[in-house]
Design goal:
It is a single chain. The chain has 436 residues and is of the alpha/beta class. It folds into 2 domains: 150 residues, Aspartate Aminotransferase, domain 1 (Alpha-Beta Complex); 269 residues, 3-Layer(aba) Sandwich (Aspartate Aminotransferase, domain 2). The protein is built from 16 helices and 13 strands. Strands 2-8-7-6-5-3-4 form a 7-stranded mixed beta sheet, sandwiched between helices. Strands 9-10-13-12 form a 4-stranded antiparallel beta sheet, covered by helices on one side. Helix 8 links the parallel strand 5 and strand 6. The radius of gyration is 22 Å and the shape is globular. The two termini are 16 Å apart.
């Protein structure tokens, strides 16, 4: 039996102005779940929004307090970022990725959302005729929303059938027209939690160089592939990255998940030095500046968006990065709770007839972490997302992420110990009500 009636769910959709629950965005799903929870007092199992479910790192908090006590709140921060953060970012990338990006090429942004927004502008304006973005999907839906705002066209393909050796031919087919300015993906992946392996990253890097496309590598879930012993500074294994295979890259490093610092909206874009210093006549003509990628990105684009990032938060992020390099913060162990949650949640769902949709990387089973994907026999992703709402479980359909597979995205961040029994009971009832 359903927890919430169709009438009540329809009421929630109407009150929240959600036209189609089967294909609702993250924000729309969140509104419907909140309405139902507040209306009835019945707790939801919230798998919709990828907001951190752990306390913010206290070292960052204390460093911010000290910065404010020093008086940084009275001055505008430099557009390129405070020196302490830029230097800490350079060292952090060296320690955990084993890639050299100079401090000047590490630029703070108000979250990776701002970083990708600015990068989409800069990359699609640098060369006439290169004006499209290629998404290696599934991916973060917000980034396509950004392109809608900007009026930038895009291409996309679901990587599910193109893993390993199949990736090169598919990627080359997408790039051969020469109109792709940037390639974007997340690794580990939001929503599928798949991880691109080194040979795949090599293919992406080499083709990015061949076709002069800039790779925007979103590392929001940095070192969160818990199958590998990552997170030890200056010691292999290092985080896999396209930066080993091309100079056309921008790495996006967010503080939101690895330090649970989402509320402070702080991230970094780490641009390869070669790209940072590259001159583009089209940028020079548009902005009447030197036309150098890095300086145009900072002064003409990012500054127009946010006028710099909050000074105290920059010092907080710098402290967390610095202490990580010194081995005093083990952010991988701090976030490993997501692995434990995913393992428990998957076991419950699979015991009641569900399956993991994106279940493998090239050489091994997909790991447990912040996200995972679920399918159910006989239901499309949209149908499953809607049906789960009746049983007090909120998620989003995979088709909203660019996926061509039928299923939903599940996030572990809001799971609580007392909800495992609740989830088990509800999914047992779901299975009883949805026998093939």
């Amino acid at each position: 039996m359903k927890i919430f009636s169709e009438q009540l769910v329809n009421e929630a959709c109407a009150q929240s102005h959600v036209a189609n629950l089967s294909h609702a965005t993250i924000g729309e799903t969140l509104l419907v779940a909140q309405y139902l929870e507040q209306k009835t007092g019945i707790p939801f199992v919230r798998m919709d929004q990828g907001s951190p479910g752990l306390p913010a790192n206290h070292y960052g908090i204390e460093a911010e307090k000290r910065a404010l006590d020093r008086g940084v709140g009275s001055q505008y921060p430099p557009a390129a970022g405070v020196r302490e953060l830029k230097e800490a970012a350079h060292e952090f990338v060296k320690a955990f990725v084993n890639v050299d990006v100079s401090a000047r090429s590490c630029v703070p942004t108000t979250g990776s959302v701002a970083g990708s927004f600015g990068a989409f502008i800069a990359t699609t304006q640098r060369i006439p005729g290169k004006d499209k973005v290629l998404f290696i999907d599934p991916g973060f839906p917000i980034q396509k929303s950004q392109l809608r705002v900007l009026g930038i066209k895009w291409k996309e393909f679901d990587i599910y059938p193109y893993r390993g050796e199949k990736l090169k031919a598919k990627l080359e087919d997408e790039l051969k027209d020469g109109d792709v300015a940037a390639i974007v993906y997340s690794n580990p992946n939001n929503p599928a939690w798949i991880c691109l392996e080194e040979p795949e990253l090599q293919v992406i890097g080499e083709l990015a160089t061949k076709y002069d496309a800039v790779v925007l590598e979103d590392l929001a879930y940095f070192c969160m592939d818990y199958r590998r012993d990552l997170g030890h500074p200056y010691r292999p294994p290092y985080v896999p990255t396209v930066a080993r295979y091309t100079e056309n890259y921008v790495l996006m490093l967010s503080s939101s998940k690895i330090f649970s610092y989402a509320g402070q909206r702080m991230a970094l874009v780490c641009i390869s030095d070669a790209l940072f210093d590259k001159h583009y006549p089209a940028l020079q003509q548009r902005y009447h500046d030197a036309g150098v990628f890095g300086s145009t990105f900072i002064a003409e684009i990012l500054y127009m968006m946010t006028s710099g990032c909050t000074a105290s938060t920059q010092y907080g992020y710098a402290e967390m990065l610095r202490l990580s390099c010194e081995g005093k913060i083990n952010f991988v162990e701090d976030t490993r709770e997501y692995e434990r949650r995913a393992n428990k949640m998957k076991e419950i769902f699979c015991r009641h007839g569900f399956r993991v949709v994106y279940d493998r990387d090239v050489t091994r089973e997909v790991g447990d972490g912040f996200f995972f994907t679920l399918g159910y026999p006989g239901l499309t992703g949209g149908q499953l997302a809607k049906e789960l709402m009746y049983y007090g479980v909120s998620s989003i359909s995979l088709d909203t992420t660019g996926s061509r597979q039928e299923g939903v995205r599940a996030c572990t961040s809001r799971m609580r110990d007392e909800l495992y029994t609740v989830l088990d009971d509800r999914m047992r009832q779901f299975h009883d009500d949805h026998q093939l």
